[in-house]
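Input/output pair, single chain:
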Amino acid sequence: MRASLLQIDVNEGESIESRRVRVASLVREQSGSADLVVLPELWTTGAFAYEEFASEAEPLEGPTYEAMAKAASDAGVWLHAGSIPERDPEGPLYNTSLVFSPAGDLVAAYRKIHRFGFDKGEAVLMGAGEELVTVRLPETTVGVATCYDLRFPELFRGLVDAGAETFVVPAGWPERRRAHWTLLAQARAVENQAFVLACGTAGTHAGVPQAGHSIVVDPWGEVLAQAGAGEQVLTVEFDPGKPAVTRDQFPALKDRVLGVAAPPRR
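Output:
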């Protein structure tokens, strides 16, 4: 199976509509070279462009949905179209990922559960998702997570219990914490014996330099491919059957001990 991670440069001098057209063209260019294409988190606005979230938010089936559905269909690929600031007409904004089939059908939407910012930014401007999301591809079951989710192993355990063998993680990860990005991607792969396909952005979002360095990690924690800092298409071929083989050869997941009571506080 081949995957292409499109590490998009979110340039503040480029309009959102121009970027949308450019990214759709990049998706189409993966036709014949990838089965799965992955885009970063909030690549329309920039993950740190908090002041633009409300003004640029769009309904689930808005302009980004329409452009990415058409691009997926034209390219004949599974497309994780990264995430958008979604405006729910009956609720708050959400950081929502969209996944399309090769026919251009929306097969999943994931509202980010862990919002970054502590008491500001995304954490106060957007609502939290409440549901884990997996997508069954012909070759593998994908578990969907977004950026800050990478710091919370419980979410990934839940995705494993739901059948995930490959994690797809779009992100807008800052350069100043790039070491954590690589470390956490490898940790989530090793502890869950799964592939991790983590796609970040390049450029600068609202003055915050982005880490880039999109990465693909195998179930043993080996880095199969990693991008540099700038805009790049990172294409890698991997064996979707490897998680099952790894879990059979080294069945650590069977030794999980759940429900251990915490000791009383003193």
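The helical segments are 16-28, 50-56, 63-75, 122-125, 153-161, 178-192, 242-249. The mean pLDDT is 97.
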